[in-house]
Amino acid sequence: DTGVSQNPRHKITKRGQNVTFRCDPISEHNRLYWYRQTLGQGPEFLTYFQNEAQLEKSRLLSDRFSAERPKGSFSTLEIQRTEQGDSAMYLCASSYSGGAHYGYTFGSGTRLTVV
Amino acid sequence: GQQVMQIPQYQHVQEGEDFTTYCNSSTTLSNIQWYKQRPGGHPVFLIQLVKSGEVKKQKRLTFQFGEAKKNSSLHITATQTTDVGTYFCAGSDSGSARQLTFGSGTQLTVLP
User: Fold this and answer.
1) How far apart (Å, rounded) are the C-alpha atoms in residues B33 and A6?
2) Kind and range of the H or E element at A105?
3) Closest chain B residue to A32 measured between Cα atoms?
4) How far is B16 from chain A (nearest CA, A)?
5) Secondary structure (H, E, C), A51-81
6) How far apart are CA B30 and CA A78, in angstroms?
7) For A74-100, how does the pLDDT look when each residue is reduced to its tens digit (9 = 90+)?
8) How far apart are the C-alpha atoms of A69 and B78, rounded to whole Å?
């Protein structure tokens, strides 16, 4: 397994456009998380899936954001009508609920720049 | 909501000096995790602490979980240039760490 894979690595988009990011977690991991990180800050929770079910979503998350995880495998995060404030690193992480610890394995992230 | 605060925000040390970062939660935690993020990289899991008063060591790194399970610390002995990066604590108030709340991190610079 090559770890958590995220695509694209970078995305530059014009304000008002829609963007979609993809995350392929570690295949044995049943939990998948999306976080957002801005410069100088820690990752901020966006949403969480266990298998295909989206179990938690941040109250801070605008309805312009939507995430899916069909069949409990890869996940997509879509941002509609992007705004400049959406510019950030979007991190995907996965973990396994049956392991000895619940540490996350993060992907390398997708850096979004809204111009 | 749950808040996790970390101090200091920045720390510059001479190589060979010790380093400590502190983490405080506004709520009692079920467990706390520590991550390291190298410049330009992504967070990498270091360790998880679960028990009140727990102390764990990884070579030169010592992690502690407070008795009240509301604070934690990471101590690095005799820093090396490879220790450079930002150290984040992340806490969960649920038993299975479904959702981690990250601190803002301590950025460590090690001067050779």
Assistant:
1) 23
2) strand A105-106
3) B98
4) 26
5) CCEEEEECCCCCCCEEEECHHHCCEEEEECC
6) 32
7) 999 999 999 999 999 999 999 987 766
8) 44
